[in-house]
């Protein structure tokens, strides 16, 4: 049975987080909020505990986990940051940035046998307190079933993994809504393996950066898997007059008897036989609401038509997730 513990995200109560920390110490699974998405956590140094993560998520064993820390000292206990990594740690930790570095002592199951380890210090009071009270780094992938959109609310975790995790800490909706930027610091220029809220431009103020965009040779094992995919047929339209064109396409599908949803920025309702959902007013709001809206529409629709955005700033991360969610067309 899953225990759900509601906490105040701004001021998490020690005794409540302590209950979850005890579970981590026992080698059990705890889902917890971060500023990006909810994570499915276990003691990163306990092989048996980490194995449970892979089992519960249905995650391929060759896809390594991110190890979460609560202090800079803890980074040095598990990894060997080079000068470049140190610069980025100074500049961006805690925050939505994961650094791939040389591994020091994290077991192979956590790193999927690589000699590197991915490390992140979340900028979230609940996550930091959980790691601190657990007295160990916490390995945590996003707390969704493999192939589903990442969870941005405790209810999403319950939907996907209900009764498979020991504790879910409910700290409300996550702020950013997309997973962290993953950067490989063992090469130079450093490589963005997964775009996120920390953009290439921001990183470039400190180091030389390029996108690892050759997706055919997956450098980050996670790059080769289809992620974030709703069950519904998902169509992404990039270009002008989205509302008009999406509504035309929706009309064709409705005539054939399909249930259709349209999701975009600042949308107004055009037809009452189509479900319209708003991502919000700007790209930050879209990032925050993207996975939640896809999950909502997936429950009610056979076809989802999504507004694509310009691949600039956080738009790069949004489009990276949409490429994996469905088919992208220029209009
Ligand atoms: O925001 C986030 O990063 C969330 C929260 C919970 O922290 N976590 C998350 O984890 O998104 P996950 O497992 O869903 O994605 C981790 C990504 C995968 O694409 C994985 O392949 C990559 O990081 N990764 C992990 N270790 C790596 C390594 N040593 N080298 C290259 N890529 C690595
Ligand atoms: Mg994930």
From TrEMBL:
<dbReference type="InterPro" id="IPR005145">
    <property type="entry name" value="Sua5_C"/>
</dbReference>
<dbReference type="GO" id="GO:0000049">
    <property type="term" value="F:tRNA binding"/>
</dbReference>
<dbReference type="GO" id="GO:0006450">
    <property type="term" value="P:regulation of translational fidelity"/>
</dbReference>
<feature type="binding site">
    <location>
        <position position="194"/>
    </location>
    <ligand>
        <name>ATP</name>
    </ligand>
</feature>
<dbReference type="GO" id="GO:0005524">
    <property type="term" value="F:ATP binding"/>
</dbReference>
<keyword id="KW-0067">ATP-binding</keyword>
<dbReference type="InterPro" id="IPR006070">
    <property type="entry name" value="Sua5-like_dom"/>
</dbReference>
<dbReference type="Pfam" id="PF01300">
    <property type="entry name" value="Sua5_yciO_yrdC"/>
</dbReference>
<feature type="domain" description="YrdC-like">
    <location>
        <begin position="14"/>
        <end position="198"/>
    </location>
</feature>
<dbReference type="GO" id="GO:0008033">
    <property type="term" value="P:tRNA processing"/>
</dbReference>
<dbReference type="Pfam" id="PF03481">
    <property type="entry name" value="Sua5_C"/>
</dbReference>
<feature type="binding site">
    <location>
        <position position="120"/>
    </location>
    <ligand>
        <name>L-threonine</name>
    </ligand>
</feature>
<keyword id="KW-0548">Nucleotidyltransferase</keyword>
<feature type="binding site">
    <location>
        <position position="142"/>
    </location>
    <ligand>
        <name>ATP</name>
    </ligand>
</feature>
<feature type="binding site">
    <location>
        <position position="228"/>
    </location>
    <ligand>
        <name>ATP</name>
    </ligand>
</feature>
<feature type="binding site">
    <location>
        <position position="116"/>
    </location>
    <ligand>
        <name>ATP</name>
    </ligand>
</feature>
<feature type="binding site">
    <location>
        <position position="150"/>
    </location>
    <ligand>
        <name>ATP</name>
    </ligand>
</feature>
<dbReference type="GO" id="GO:0005737">
    <property type="term" value="C:cytoplasm"/>
</dbReference>
<keyword id="KW-0808">Transferase</keyword>
<feature type="binding site">
    <location>
        <position position="140"/>
    </location>
    <ligand>
        <name>L-threonine</name>
    </ligand>
</feature>
<comment type="similarity">
    <text>Belongs to the SUA5 family.</text>
</comment>
<feature type="binding site">
    <location>
        <position position="180"/>
    </location>
    <ligand>
        <name>L-threonine</name>
    </ligand>
</feature>
<feature type="binding site">
    <location>
        <position position="68"/>
    </location>
    <ligand>
        <name>L-threonine</name>
    </ligand>
</feature>
<keyword id="KW-0819">tRNA processing</keyword>
<dbReference type="GO" id="GO:0061710">
    <property type="term" value="F:L-threonylcarbamoyladenylate synthase"/>
</dbReference>
<keyword id="KW-0547">Nucleotide-binding</keyword>
<dbReference type="InterPro" id="IPR050156">
    <property type="entry name" value="TC-AMP_synthase_SUA5"/>
</dbReference>
<dbReference type="GO" id="GO:0003725">
    <property type="term" value="F:double-stranded RNA binding"/>
</dbReference>
<protein>
    <recommendedName>
        <fullName>Threonylcarbamoyl-AMP synthase</fullName>
        <ecNumber>2.7.7.87</ecNumber>
    </recommendedName>
</protein>
<keyword id="KW-0963">Cytoplasm</keyword>
<dbReference type="InterPro" id="IPR017945">
    <property type="entry name" value="DHBP_synth_RibB-like_a/b_dom"/>
</dbReference>
<comment type="function">
    <text>Required for the formation of a threonylcarbamoyl group on adenosine at position 37 (t(6)A37) in tRNAs that read codons beginning with adenine.</text>
</comment>
<feature type="binding site">
    <location>
        <position position="59"/>
    </location>
    <ligand>
        <name>ATP</name>
    </ligand>
</feature>
<feature type="binding site">
    <location>
        <position position="36"/>
    </location>
    <ligand>
        <name>L-threonine</name>
    </ligand>
</feature>
<feature type="binding site">
    <location>
        <position position="63"/>
    </location>
    <ligand>
        <name>ATP</name>
    </ligand>
</feature>
<dbReference type="InterPro" id="IPR038385">
    <property type="entry name" value="Sua5/YwlC_C"/>
</dbReference>
<dbReference type="InterPro" id="IPR010923">
    <property type="entry name" value="T(6)A37_SUA5"/>
</dbReference>
């Amino acid at each position: 049975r899953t225990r759900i513990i509601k906490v105040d995200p701004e001021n998490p109560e020690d005794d409540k987080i302590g209950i979850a920390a005890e579970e981590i110490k026992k080698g059990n699974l705890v889902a917890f909020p971060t500023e990006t998405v909810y994570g499915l956590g276990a003691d990163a140094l306990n092989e048996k505990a980490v194995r449970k993560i892979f089992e519960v998520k249905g995650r391929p064993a060759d896809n390594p986990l991110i190890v979460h820390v609560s202090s800079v000292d803890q980074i040095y206990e598990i990894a060997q940051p080079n000068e470049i990594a140190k610069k980025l740690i100074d500049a961006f930790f805690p925050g939505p940035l994961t650094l791939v570095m040389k591994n020091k002592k994290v077991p192979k199951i956590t790193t999927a046998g690589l000699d590197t380890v991915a490390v992140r210090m979340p900028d979230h009071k609940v996550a930091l307190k959980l790691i601190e009270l657990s007295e160990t780094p916490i390995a945590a992938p996003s707390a969704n079933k493999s192939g589903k959109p990442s969870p941005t609310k405790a209810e999403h975790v319950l939907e996907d993994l209900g009764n498979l995790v020991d504790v879910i800490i409910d700290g409300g909706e996550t702020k950013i809504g997309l997973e962290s930027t993953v950067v490989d610091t063992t090469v130079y220029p450093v490589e963005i393996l997964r775009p996120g809220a920390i953009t290439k431009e921001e990183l470039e103020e400190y180091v030389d950066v390029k996108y690892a965009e050759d997706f055919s040779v997956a450098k980050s094992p996670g790059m080769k898997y289809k992620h974030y995919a709703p069950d519904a047929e998902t169509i992404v339209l990039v270009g002008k007059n989205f509302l008009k064109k999406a509504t035309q396409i929706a009309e064709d599908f409705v005539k054939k008897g399909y249930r259709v949803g349209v999701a975009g920025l600042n949308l107004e309702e055009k037809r009452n036989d189509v479900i319209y959902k708003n991502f919000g007013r700007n790209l930050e709001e879209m990032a925050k609401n993207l996975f939640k809206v896809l999950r909502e529409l997936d429950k009610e629709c056979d076809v989802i038509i999504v507004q694509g955005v310009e691949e600039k700033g956080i738009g790069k991360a949004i489009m990276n997730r949409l490429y994996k969610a469905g088919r992208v067309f220029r209009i």
